[in-house]
User: Fold this.
Amino acid sequence: MSMIVERMAARRRTILLGSLIGFSLWRGAALAQQLSPPDGPPIIVFVVVQMVGGLVWAIFLIRALAFGSGLPVAVRTALSDELTTDRRRTSFGIGLFAVMSAQVLLLFVAFANPATANTGIRLAAEFTILVGTIATIGSYLYLDRE
Amino acid sequence: MGVSRKTINTVENARFIPSTVLALRLARALRVSVEDLFSLSGD
Assistant:
């Protein structure tokens, strides 16, 4: 059983890493496109990166949804043991800190440069979600690296 | 025991402090008392 647990834990890491890369490319390119100056890179570059990132994210999302189905209860329990729960809790804490920091940064930018204050709620929300997702999944992968 | 080998490894290397329930389970599996497995750093 130990071998199955280790194999599934490695698979979970791959799924998390793949979804992190896919999501970062997808939403990061969308954000970069909105922030890009008129004389910046052509839009097609951003669109292609978004499409590739979105496809990668979708593939790993399907793998994540299928993960664990059909496994014995003992294996599923070992995959969510107290070390995993502890690391998950820590990474969510780091994610919350990152989200709050991103909000403070956006507030600071809005105060320091009032011209950016009307940039838009959508842009701020996308930035915050991107930072929170990267911080949460990235910190979990870091904590679970050994 | 309901935990992965990695969890046992982190407990052995003192990088993760297990719950009371897991400590009791470990002691039972190894047929020793909890005090034989764990102690406070000052003791």
Chain B has three helices and no strands. Chain B touches chain A through eleven residues (CB under 8 Å). The longest helix of chain B spans residues 20-30. Residues 5-37 of chain B form one domain.
